[in-house]
Amino acid sequence: MSDMNSMNREIKKNQLRRQIVPASPQKEENSEEIIKKARIKVRNKRFKIFLVLFLVLVAGAIGAYEYFQLYHYTGYGVVWEKEMNEGSYVGYQDFGSNVLKYSKDGASYLDSKGEEVWIQSYEMNSPVASVNGDYAAIADQQGNSIYIFDKSGNTGVATTVLPIVKATVSAHGVVAAILEDSTSNYVYFFKRDGSALDVKIKALLGGDSGYPVDISLSPDGTQLIGAYAYLKNGALNGRVAFHNFAEIGKSIPDRLVGGFDEPYESSLVAQVAFLDDTYSCAFADNSVSFYSTKNALSPELVKQVAVEEEIKSVFHSDKYVGLIVDNPEGENPYRLDVYKPDGRLAFSRGFQYQYTHADIDGDRVILYNEDSCRVYNMSGRLKFSGTFDFPISKIRNGRFPNTLIVTGPQNMKEIRLQIGGQYQ
What we know:
The structure is a single chain. With 424 residues, the protein is of the alpha+beta class. It has helices spanning 2-20, 25-70, and strands at 71-83, 89-95, 98-103, 106-110, 116-121, 127-132, 135-140, 145-150, 153-159, 164-169, 175-180, 185-190, 196-203, 211-217, 223-232, 235-244, 256-260, 269-274, 279-284, 287-292, 300-306, 311-316, 321-326, 334-339, 345-351, 357-361, 364-368, 372-377, 382-387, 394-397, 403-407, 411-423. A four-stranded antiparallel beta sheet has the order 1-32-31-30. Strands 2-3-4-5 form a four-stranded antiparallel beta sheet, with no helix packed on it. It has a four-stranded antiparallel beta sheet with strand order 6-7-8-9, with no helix packed on it.
């Protein structure tokens, strides 16, 4: 019996030893490997879920982009309406994100809800406005005064002895004006407070420089592009010239850093414009030219686009240049061509619409007449076409992507474009 008890005790001891002996190292490694593989599997599963969600979001974003690019708005609703004091209304100009209204007896700055931010009274026979960034200038054409404004109001008044032909303003408030007398023209410069700068350019039709037709200041106010007409062998020709008024141009006569005659033989340049501090353009009667002043002392003709058709309208923003020309081919009587600042074509599209005004605001081209409008995006797709029951003087983008500010002599409205279910 005692032997049996001893045997039972030994068996129990052996069982107890087996229970308390730690697992072998090989078994520990196998457990860690299993845990590691499980973690990798979880990470891979999470990555696959994330990748699927990401692809769904990308596909949704692309779909939404294509939807808004392709969809055509066919109706609208009025968000708000503001009655305007018509007075001696002359015109509207985009001024920052708002609108500058100017007339013969004063100007006012209107915010995105039609409220007057400031009002300035004056008396002019023929006011013309120029806007560049945060500054605007209103000049009395054939008169002797130029009112200079920023977004807070009038900063100064420039007074001239000679009659004003044209005026342009920089984004820093510097104003350049073409003045004329009986024998020659001059370009004078003024600070934003209206005081004269000790800089001027004299030009004669029969002289070396030519007769100034149009001018434009760069946003920083250090460069000026001018369109000139000059006589050559008894014929009138066009010229584009660049002047630099920074420190670098001081040592150069008349600060003339570049002139281009050959591109305009037997043609005239009617309008020039600085798009930004680097790129500018010139509109001739048979071409549009794109210039770069990356090298301030050596302007470059980047590209000249010949236009065989008759040019009906030219317009621009700081990012795009637009032309409307006769379209002799096809069913559409007109063609809209829009270019980037370096001369690359953004899009070209024929149309039949009888417009009277053409503007670029952001990434939209807006064509309109006194009671209707058409809006294109920069892919050339028609986004909206509609008619209104009140006269139109100006249309620009509203506060949101699907709104427009429609302004007339008597009222201003913000309209919300509505989808009608048509693709163009």
